[in-house]
Amino acid sequence: MSTGVKWIIGLVVAVIVLWGGWALLAPSDTVDEPVVAEETEPEPIRIGFIGPLTGDAAAYGEPGQKVTALAVTEINEAGGINGRMLEVIYEDGKCNGKDAASAMQKLVNVDKVQVVLGGFCSGESLAAAPIANANKVLLFSQGSSSPDLTDAGDYFFRDYPSDASQGKVLAEVAYNTKEWRKVAVIQEQLDYPLGVYNAFNEAFTELGGEVVRETFAPETSDFRTVLTKLEKEDADALLVSVQTPAAAEIILKQMGDIEWETNLLGVDIIAGSDLPAEQPELVEGMIVAEFGVDESNEIYQKFVAAYEAAYEEEVPFKSYAQAEYDAVNLLAKALTEVGDNGEALQKWFSEMDSFDGASGSVSFDEKGDRTIGHRAEVIEDGEVKLLE
After folding, report:
1. Which has fewest Cβ within 10 Å: 122, 218, 241, 374?
2. Whose CA is closest to 208, among 174, 241, 243?
3. What is the pTM of this model?
């Protein structure tokens, strides 16, 4: 390579080096923007829900889900819980202990919730309560009424009264007001109907009355043999203690098939169902004991108006619905004051005085039971009326 060529290459290299150095030292036209963290929405507060969303008992579970969703929407539109939205994880307890226990295990161990609304059916709550107590998760029922739940543990509360009240009221009316001395009972083999029967039987026999009972499995559809057997007992009245309106309807129709006419006592699910309005002849004169509704309560009136506007239908099972609505709002108050922690919530509910809601004044005894019970009513001309 000639000397001239080497000189030219050297000059080019020098220029490149000088240019690169100048480029490194020269100010840049672009300025790095400071890193600003994006604002994110706070995590929602997730709570569980266990209720019968399929099967015959979905007649309660589906309206209950609607009431819950309505209350949650109202809370969130008002700003949520200290700025955090409330979110519900709905699980189908199918009105039995096995499915409710599975649902509770999922909500506690997978979803990590600190509070669960439910169960609705007593069997659901009886199965879920031990799991709640073991994991220190609050379980708040809006419909379970079995007297057995009085001893369900420290983490179980309910704003629907125990059937000990319902059964006692029915017994006192039957013995003292109607002067009936012998009552036949047809009872479904589930926790809620059993709870009503036990309370009625205890109170009625203590007053001096006699009770005869026949039970049936939930899958039963032909009651004629059982009803014929009870008819021969020559009782003054028949108590229909069942889990669903569907079972009551079949029983009452088949009483007509065997031409058995007698005085009737019924559980509150019959009073709250469509039977009085749609098939009044089946339940005419039936005595029931229901957790009453105060139509003059302004909170109740606003709830009913909001429900009808949202779903374009009347509120079904009003005595249950008012308790379901209050349960969400009462829980929201507790979450606002003590946060999303099962132990703190349990302490708050144990120490609270009272809460004014759609169902009236809500307060609890030392066992977590609501302190206000049932009242005697009668079904006449398709309407449920206060028994004078």
Report:
1. 218
2. 174
3. 0.78
